[in-house]
């Protein structure tokens, strides 16, 4: 199978009666899941959605999400998962940049979508029902396979995942059917010891690449996926206990809160495996899992690269600080960031990746694509090394992206919002190390002499324009350090900020 078009159909042929999706009292077998997908596909066709059209999904984690994804893929439409934490300002830039045709949405986001679609080419928005009401939503459509009259090929785009949300800078990563379908033939499940009888809790949002990867892996393997939008640790453990969950994907902060809750209130559960990544997974967290008789595996990857490597305790506790070994089909090398020459084993340089699973490029942005795709290799922007056993170690980043608990914050976007103040002369956003979140955003601003602009005014403005995790702390400076050509040197700003913070806490 070289596309995702019939992924659920193929699984249905093998295990039609097995539970595929669960949300509360709603339970779909794989046969029912396939029928719901076909109904959704017929609905899209009726609405004039065709191959290549960009279809956004602005919904909470729910049983509807994996149905809508596979319905769109069935007819060759491109799925655009949209972050539920966006402001109208951010959402508008994505709707424009991706030239979306339609958006499926939950009523929670009706007002923000109404505001954001102004000035876009959105032809229709479809409100998605919840729970039992969603099961009946497309009941008037046929459950039979739709006749399309065209082929969906391995080169066709399956997903467009946006990595930024600022006007003129939103980048849509184009992920092809063949790349993702090819990944399903890797040994990833064996590497992290996922078995067919495990029930998988989907609590991590579908607008993250890692959850999309988990979805297609679960379908391919025939796992049962239990969906929830719940974030409260105690309630998540209740679901784990009630639904007999064995495996779950989450970012390190979420697992940290869950472990804290479990240690305070022990439960009789059969949970076996946590999957994490997105930022450095603390060794202490891995050890907490082990103390509870559970396993925490971690992965390294990106939207552009898909999954690069995984580490599982069975690979050796001596390698706990690594990001694991490359998965099947992935090549990794380390190059000098200036000369681009490959470096010897153990030397620190920029991580480069080559695999059949990397993205095709950024939507309508050839310049940005060429910046990261170099002779078939993807430049990760991460500083790292590979040891003599092939394990990858991430030491830091060459690029300026701030990683807050697994979510990327792009400095250009935040800086642009702050520059909307006439009194702002210069601004630089950096990430400051944080024990819990990995990094937190911090803005350093030079304002006009005599200006009455305050830090709090900037923070409040950012809160109106940006998702909460992107809102930075603000510090005024007389000037910002620059190099010989007048470019702001963020590395120096970061070093000084860390030094000042350390002195303040000494």
TrEMBL record:
Pfam families: AMP-binding, AMP-binding_C. PROSITE patterns: AMP_BINDING (PS00455). Gene3D superfamilies: 3.30.300.30, N-terminal domain of ligase-like (3.40.50.12780). It comes from the Bacteria. InterPro entries: AMP-bd_C (IPR025110), AMP-bd_C_sf (IPR045851), AMP-binding_CS (IPR020845), AMP-dep_synth/lig_dom (IPR000873), ANL_N_sf (IPR042099), ATP-dep_AMP-bd_enzyme (IPR050237). GO terms for molecular function: acid-thiol ligase activity. Residues 11-363 form the AMP-dependent synthetase/ligase domain. Keywords: Ligase. SUPFAM superfamilies: Acetyl-CoA synthetase-like. Residues 413-487 form the AMP-binding enzyme C-terminal domain. Belongs to the ATP-dependent AMP-binding enzyme family. This is AMP-binding protein.
